[in-house]
Amino acid sequence: MANKREDYISWDEYFMGVAMLSGMRSKDPSTQVGCCIVSQDNKILSMGYNGLPTGCSDDEFPWEREGEDPLETKYVYAVHSELNAILNYRGGSLEGAKLYVSLFPCNECAKAIIQSGIKEVIYDCNKYIGTSSVQASMRMFDAAGVKHHQYQRTGRKIEMEI
Q: Does pTM top 0.85 for this prediction?
């Protein structure tokens, strides 16, 4: 009888990989963020990526990061990956779930994460550490008992031909 494979990916590698792959759907030219929400028994509940709301054309709205007129930048239109994943979920409660995300959540997404009952956030990158938005997120997560920690990359390279 053959032994089972020993080189399979861990749950954390799997779910962070799904989050990162989801982020590759984003049309944003500068920042692609993906998210994967997982139940306590390691079932994928929902996914999301940063992009425009349903019905808003990716070709008709701006993707600029800066500009004198806020209405000509992406920030007033784009939905973040975490909020998209929460809103995409159609199964009821997210109470006790874990959220894997490629970029640490902003304060607005932190509010939605807390309100939805998610209890753990695993993030890959925190490139905005030290900003008021990230500081507010951490403060709210800590106050609400939402665990948050950075994903520890394994260095494993995963390739797919699709």
A: yes
